[in-house]
Every structure is written in C-alpha cells, then in structure tokens.
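Page 37, top half.
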Amino acid sequence: MPYPNVFDTNPAFSQTTLTATVNKDPHAPGRIQQLGIFDEEAITTTSVQVEERAGELVLVADTPRGGTGQQFKAGKRTLRSLVARHLKLRHTLNADEIQDLREFGSESQLADLESEVTRRLMKMSLSIEVTKEHMLVGALRGQLLDSDGSTVLINYFTEFGVSQITEFNFELDTDTQGAVQEQLRQLERQMAEELKGIPLLGVRGFMSGGFADALHKNKEFRESYTTPGAGSQQQRAGHSFSQVIDWGGVLFEEYRGSVNGVDFIPANKCIFVPIVAPGSGVFKMHYAPGDFFGAVNRRGLPMYARQFKTDDSDTGRTLEVQASPLPMPMLPRTLMVGRKT
C-alpha cells in the first residue's frame, strides 16, 4: 500500500492556505506601500481599460442677448488599455533536503515539513514584495521599469498623451534667502493645477541620498531649524535619514531602496508627489488574477502561493509565488522631479 502524500492530503499545503499565509502580513514593506499612496483594486481580467474625457474649462465671451452664443465643444473621449505585469518565482524542494534534517536550533527534533515550506515561500515572497515596491516607485516617477532599473515597461506620460513637466533645478548651495522655498511654492501651485480640481492636501518629496545631503547643508534650511522658536520643526529635523521633515510646504524624507545595484530614486534627485485623500483615484494599484485554473476570471490577489509535483517521480515539489500588479498614476503631470544643482 503506497504511503499517502502529505502535500496532497494535508490542507496546510493547499493553494488556498498557502496563499492566505503569504498575504497575511506585508513581508518586505517598502515605504510607498506603508504610506498607502495607491488605492488597491482587484480586477478579474489581465488588463485595465481607462477612459479619458479631454475636456477643458474656457472663458465665455460676452455676447448680445438673444444671440447664438459661443459654441461649446464637448471633450474628446479616449480609451486606453494597459496590461498588468506578471511576476513569478519557482523553487524546487527535494525530499532528500528534508530527510534527516534537524529543526533549526535543535539537536534532536527533525525539521517540520510545513514550517520549511512556509519559510521558503516567505523568502520567495520577499523578492516579489521588493519588486512591487520598485514598480510603485517607478509609477511615481511616471515610468514602470523592469528589474534592471532601465528597461521601460510602461511610460505613463506617453500612454496618457501628456508631457512631463520640466525638472526643477534647486540650487541648494545658494545663500539667497527664500530662493528654494519660492521654487517649492511654484511646484506646489503647478501640482495643484494639474490635479484638475482634486484637493491638494500636501506634497511629499522622496529624496536620493545626494539630494538629502545637499538639502541639509542648505543655509536657509539649516537656519529654519536653528533659529529660536523653531520648536517642533527643530526636533523633527535631527540627523537621521529616516525622519520626515516638513519644510517649505513639503514633507521631505530620504528614500532608501535599490534593485540590482540601481537606486529606486536617481542620484541627486527628489521626486515630488501630491498628497490626496484616499479614494481620490489619483494613484491606483490593480491586481490581476494568477495564471492558473484556480484563479481564472476571479478577482486578483496581491500574491499567490502554491505547490505541485515537480515530476512523476514524486521526489520533489515545486513551490511557486506569483503576483500580477499594475500600478497606475492617473494624472502623470502631477509627478514632478527636482534636481540638485
């Protein structure tokens, strides 16, 4: 009588249970995911269609009473389709890897199969989470980049038929009083205009290390935290890269993150994004279904995990983690970039 296969009989190894396990908590929480900038939405298809009405406000000319009046032009409707990306990792777990293996930290207890499977799936999910964070940062820059940090998967400016606003050159080594803050006010005004009526609650600035160092050396910035009465601002400033500093109407923070040696935020730059109310629809993160039968035409999940036979010999099991995310900045021209000069 053949031995029962624990992978097939134990509910702990079902696709539903494994998926619930890896989705329980954020495993490699990136800063963008922590802030909840993107409104998450599950979709049942592998693509998203976006309808745009290119309407505009116009000044109405004075016309004689009883006349025909100024002709109103309805906005042109445009339909665009964007395809969700697909991230998948596989790992083969061989029977001999577990046989006679002691549990970590124990001299006598043999390794628990369920714990070992969960541990390996968690390590795999870390890579998926980091990749999703990289995609979110790219979306905030207006370009969805592949894992090499240079291949453009989606250019949101091109897709939405708009141009990117010219980079702001911040002369952070200048001694001119109020010069940098004036530029920040200009940036904020333009960002508010590009929101098309959606209330601007504030601005976030995600800085590279080089930009952050230059900002902390700026005379105007330093004086704002050393003059009497700076109060809570002075306490918030500190010297830690992880702190958020409210200055010039912008919440500045140094962003730390890299993939394959490429920084998420380009050197000497700062990306500025609007702070809007949750549900405003300015930033969306869609999750498409997985590419296996159990997920077909069902609402997508942030991540899937499953296991299956590697081959007919039953000496190995394939562990798989996958996700199909599609981050979208719906108003790309609100995304602005500053460079230290």
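Page 37, bottom half:
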Amino acid sequence: MYSAKDYDQALLTPESVFADPMEIVKTDSMTPEQKLAVLKRWEASATDLETAANESMTAAAVTNGSSRLRDVGKAILELTTRENVDQNNMVQVAATQT
C-alpha cells in the first residue's frame, strides 16, 4: 500500500516509487485521477529521455527511453479503459491550473 508521501514522490519521479508503470494501474492506494497524473508525469519524463537520447544518438538510451514510453502508454490505455478515465479531460484540467 502506498502512502500520501509515496504519491507526492511519484508525482516528482514515478520511477523512484514504482518499478513498472502497470504497478500504478494495479494499486488500490490512489484514485484513478491520481494514477493518471503519475502516469502522465512518467510519460513526460520518458519523452524527455527519448528526446535527449535521440539528440546524443546513444543507442542504449534510445532503447531504454522508447521501451519506457511504450510501457507508460500501455498503462495509460489500460487505466483509461479499466477506470473509464478521460485522459484528454485530465490534461485540459491540469493545463488550466498552471
């Protein structure tokens, strides 16, 4: 079971709390909206890593970033299907709050 402190840490660096994006989908310790927020953060981190790796052209980093991005994408799809969460609505809400 994850605590509020774990959730706060996962919002900063999801991979420091969860070994795999599907762990987020499967946990009962967060609301669907919290899960989506953490997955979206992980997606942004994986995208940044992939972009940086592509710019430096290091094959290992590109492979690691791509696999994480795919894993996060699968987890987001699973969450939105299972929990009936609209990821587009969540993104718009987050964008208007900043």
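Margin note: DSSP finds five helices and no strands in the chain.
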